[in-house]
Amino acid sequence: MEAKNLKKSLTIQGVVVSDAMEKTVIIEVITRKTHPRFKKIMTRTSRVKIHDEKNECQVGDKVIAIETRPLSKQKHHKLLKVVEKAKLV
Fold it and tell me: What is the documented function of this protein (predicted)?
């Protein structure tokens, strides 16, 4: 399945914040939304566990994940591709 044919709602983009588990990484997804009454921009962050079959992600990588069937109790996304690798300091 190519990324061009996917709906935007099925993919999420975020930054890897933890890679301590086998074949699982935690990404942080940041969404910005305007408050309906006060018209200020609110920033919401959510942490999502994604399945990384080859353990190729490291902390700081920007990745795109795709929604799949439930893989476990908390994993419902799979790694699609690594957009940008983390810069080593």
Answer: One of the primary rRNA binding proteins, it binds specifically to the 5'-end of 16S ribosomal RNA.
